[in-house]
Amino acid sequence: MELVWEGIKHACWLLLSGDAEVLGITLFSLQVSGAATGLSLVVGIPLGILLAMKRFPGRSLAVSLINTGMGLPPVVVGLFVTIFLWRSGPLGFMELLYTPTAMIIAQVVIAFPIVAGLTMAAFQSLNPNLRLQLLGIGASTPQLLWLLCKEARLPLLAAIMAGFGGVISEVGASMMVGGNIRGQTRVLTTATVLETGKGNFEIAIALGLILLLLTFAVNLLLTHIQQREQIRWPKPS
Amino acid sequence: MQKKFSFPTLLAALALVVTVPSYLPAGQAASKNVILSTTTSTQDSGLLDVLVPLFEKKSGYSVKTVSVGTGQALELAAKGEADVALVHAPSLEKKYVADGKLLNRRLVMYNDFIILGPANDPAQIKSTKSSAAAMKRIAASASRFVSRGDNSGTHNLEKSLWKSAAIQPKGEWYIESGQGMGATLGIANDRGAYTISDRATFLAFRKRVTLAILLEGDRPLLNIYSVMEVNPANGPRVNTAGGKAFADFMVASETQAVIKSFGVEKFGQPLFIPVAGIREEQVGE
Q1: Rounded Cα–Cα distance for residues A183 and A177 (Å)
Q2: Architecture (CATH level 2) of domain B31-110+222-282
Q3: For residues A215 and A221, what is the distance between their CA atoms, to the nearest angstrom?
Q4: Whole-prediction pTM
Q5: Potential cystine with B37: which of B33, B82, B159, B168 (Cβ 3.0-4.6 Å)?
Q6: 3-state DSSP call for residue B124?
């Protein structure tokens, strides 16, 4: 237990003293996972809406794949992305392995099924009559989608949180495709693994706490946005 | 519905995060990147954190250090996924050199492995002076032994010791951790087991474990690190010039001087002894 206290003290010290390396790693983690979450929204939300609203051959297979993808093991994603990005691999000419871009690619692969799956669930739980009503009052397709998105915003924000939470906390893929290179691809999770390996448990605990704080801060912000906009049902008169 | 809905704002903020980072394009010209495949002990000891910036400053190359087990480090180099390898498994290295996958093997430094165990030494290995005899006694008494089991340099050394003791380790007493040296020390400590560690990692962990050094100084326990260049025929895009520059740097006299003093401040003794230019048979004499 003493070790945990030492870790907490160390975390406070690292944060208060503004340790440049830790600060850099923290910001870098936020950038990589933020970018990956952003891109996974661009892919995942339209895909989720499509799966929720259209009926087409192969849809149930696609839904099953997305649902499976929601639980993709990061280390498996890391392995396959690594093989693709190897110099001898199909994308080797891009020289992307051990770069932040490679980490973002892997994290998008992890996050987009989560976002797509939760978006699909959000849209399927909307009242089907709402769509008919909106179409009935003459909404165009973009208007319809926008209004439905607004209606489903609470679960959509939950989807963003789940996607971000999934990638900021993963270590397997970032380690494999990023290589945990100091000053280049080191994020909070891989730094924690490294410090544990070195036997620097206080620093490892401190980094872990900073990661928790960061995740907490981001989720606090998103929750704030989510909960501020509670739907206010009209009072029965 | 309220007007202030900030979902678009949120999307805009995320888009900003996506586009702002200047690092996104892989950037540097390919030939400026050197991929170094190396073992965990060089990284975990902190040595590379000192040497790599020195090399980058001197040469203008940017180094991507991939620190994995020695087996994997050699395999990556043999596939042309790295430009230079810094590892510690001489017998395995020689195979890759003989196959022409790796070139120009040069010794860089050494330290030693130590056999650790519970202080009460149930297998009585402290009285033996040979590592082979110690392994025999551990197996004969079926005392617990934790192996790395990960084809790392340390694991290869362990396998060669079992071989020289003519023993196939098997049974309840033989535990394979499949993890790095630090985690393996933790398991051995927890189970009151014997294990083999490089001295640098043990020094880093000595405050956390109660394991005692029971055997050291035997010649087979030498831990020799070599640097090898990657044959450009192994795959596309091998940075031959960059790999050679790093290998040359590791054996240069200024670098060797840095290695000699590394760790003295923290541990009161150097973690590695430089041996560039010395013949392998003479190491440790």
Answers
A1: 15
A2: 3-Layer(aba) Sandwich (3.40)
A3: 10
A4: 0.84
A5: B82
A6: coil
